[in-house]
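User: Um, what's this?
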Amino acid sequence: MAKAPAMSPSDTPVETVLDGLAEVKRAEAEQLMGLMAAVTGEQPRLWASRIIGYGQYHYRYESGREGDAPLAAFATNQRQHTIYLTAGFAELHATQLARLGKVKHATSCLYVTRLTEVDLDVLRELVELGVQDARRNHHEPSE
């Protein structure tokens, strides 16, 4: 039997991740869950044993590499929240990123220490734009 890709949804309850968080980080993770559920209209699923994701799309790069990813997702640990957006979001949405608040970022990730340090309306806008980018540039698999 073929091994499932590391980045795939599972049936493991999301609470297994939430239960391991300190009270403040859990409350913030629950805020992020509400935001992403509202944006996507999807229920949360656990991906790669620690990422809470909403919806799903299939990507294929010019190199031929392909796979599935959540439309919107985040992972929380005791230090920070990692919010997964579409590749290149910082260049595509620089205006919103400049208004967001205290964050670090990489190619497709935002790193937020505390949600109180960011403008949640701008964060929601970035998640909405990321979902729109994913839906426009990729396709959602039929399940």
Q: What stands out?
A: Helices lie at 15-18, 23-40, 89-92, 94-100, 120-137. The chain has five helices and eight strands.
